[in-house]
Design goal:
Structural class: alpha/beta
Shape: globular
Strand order of the largest sheet: 3-2-1-4-5
Order of helices and strands: EHEHHEHHEHEHEEH
Oligomer: single chain
CATH superfamily: HUPs
CATH architecture: 3-Layer(aba) Sandwich
CATH topology: Rossmann fold
CATH class: Alpha Beta
Largest sheet: 5 strands, parallel
């Protein structure tokens, strides 16, 4: 396995796109992985190819480092997940106070499949956009969960995977700033225009912060972070 190669979990959204840029600056070869689990905002899967194409055009070095893309079907996850991410139901808090957009075990399943693919592809670094600062309360975005998963994967696969989470301790405003630091206005513009975060899958009006309904939790986090970032510039 090569420590100079990485697999990025690329959903097509702001966070994972920022992580892809972060990885392209650090590793010699960067492959990407997306998951089709019957998500309501399946438009994000279509945007993945657009993001990859735009990133490759931003810098010659990124084009050279950007490796293969993979998409894995996880229909079973959607079938057992009665959530607002996989069903046409209103977004609201459940009895535990969590938003019903929480898909139980999603990130754990994603990381297990990512590690299996990385093992076959000879990749030791797995990069994800999990964040404990702006995370809607999802327990599988917490640093403890990711660290525990890394231990389990390395024991279970007799490997030396490193799970990289560059956004873990920063908020959305800082995520916008990270993109600006890595790729300047050109990268920020790609994230605004071409990534997709809206849980309802709306790809209509273009706001200052990107496309989306503007009301779902994902849109509000993104919009609030953009407003905070621009006000501090």
């Amino acid at each position: 396995m090569s420590g100079r190669a990485a697999l990025v979990l690329l959903s097509g959204g702001q966070d994972s796109a920022t992580c892809l840029a972060w990885a392209l600056e650090r590793f010699d070869r960067v492959e990407t992985l997306g998951f089709d689990y019957g998500q309501r905002h399946a438009i994000e899967l279509k945007q993945r190819a657009v993001v990859r194409e735009k990133f490759a055009a931003l810098r010659p070095a990124w084009r050279e480092r950007l490796g293969e893309d993979h998409t894995l079907g996880l229909a079973a996850l959607g079938a057992i997940s009665d959530t607002a991410m996989t069903r046409e139901i209103a977004i609201e808090a459940n009895e535990k106070g969590l938003p019903n957009t929480f898909v139980p075990g999603r990130n754990l399943i994603f990381l297990a499949f990512a590690a299996a693919l990385a093992y076959r592809r000879g990749l030791t670094r797995i990069v994800g956009g999990m964040c404990e600062t702006d995370f809607s309360g999802y327990p599988d975005c917490r640093d403890d969960a990711i660290k525990a998963m890394q231990v389990a994967l390395n024991i279970g696969m007799d490997s030396r995977f490193t799970l990289e989470t560059p956004l873990m301790w920063i908020d959305k405003a800082a995520t916008w700033e990270l993109a600006q630091t890595i790729g300047g206005d050109a990268l920020v513009n790609v994230i605004v225009n071409d990534t997709h975060t809206c849980y309802l899958g709306e790809r209509g009006a273009l706001h200052a912060w990107g496309h989306g309904c503007g009301q779902c939790p994902a849109c509000r986090l993104r919009a609030d972070g953009f407003a905070k970032w621009t006000s501090n510039r």
